[in-house]
Amino acid sequence: MRQRVVIALALCAEPRLIIADEPTTALDVSVQAQIIALLKRVCRERNAAVILVTHDMGVIAETADRVAVMYAGRLAEIGPVAQVLQKPSHPYTAGLMGSIPRIGPRPDRLIQIEGSMPRLTDIPSGCAFNPRCPKVFANCHHIRPELRQIADGAAACLLYEGVTQ
Ligand code: SF4
């Protein structure tokens, strides 16, 4: 109910854009679905856009049109939800998606991203993901990748910049 009240308060000012930061955290699945449905409905009715900040891939798959994957404060990948979730281009996104259990044939082990997120005061040089990346190569340690277009999205990874040495 508190979540609903907060959404109602946010809508009072008739915003064009709502930034919803983890709006379904700590809610059980059925209430979560209600909150998401409510957000979608009121935004459709009021012609407002939503930036949904969440760690829940299920919520993203169910709710969003486009998704941006952040790592250490920068965009790692962005694109249409189906493209990013089903065919991730960035190794970090691939690791995230590989760590999610699926119904159907299962691998022996889920993919695990080694290590942990760097402190924002101590981000590695080059690509910030390089200490944890299974595809790391020499240039990753000193060249910071920029976003490159891939299909309808983009990824910040040197694998797409032709400098794989
Ligand atoms: S730039 Fe290198 S370290 Fe970074 S994600 Fe791509 S392959 Fe991995």
Q: Counting H and I runs of at least 4 residues, what is the number of helices? A: 5
Question: Which stretches are poorly predicted, pLDDT < 50 over at least 5 residues?
Answer: none
**What overall form do the CA principal axes indicate?**
globular
Strand content: 15-25%
How would you write the strand order of the largest sheet?
Answer: 3-4-6-5
Provide the list of bound ligands, each named once: iron/sulfur cluster
Quote the average pLDDT.
Answer: 89
The level of helicity is 25-40%
Order of helices and strands: HEHEHEEHHEE
Query: What characterizes the major β-sheet?
Result: 4 strands, antiparallel
How many β-strands, per DSSP? 6
Using the CA coordinates, give the radius of gyration.
Answer: 18 Å
Amino- and carboxy-terminal Cα gap: 54 Å
Q: How many structural domains in the coordinates?
A: 2
Coarse structural class: alpha+beta
In short:
This protein has five helices and six strands.
Task: Give structural notes.
This protein is α+β, with helices and mostly antiparallel strands. The chain folds into two domains: 1-64, Rossmann fold; 68-100 and 115-165, no CATH class. It has five helices and six strands. The mean pLDDT is 89. Iron/sulfur cluster is lined by residues 90-91, 127, 129-130, 133, 135-136, 140, 145, 157-159.
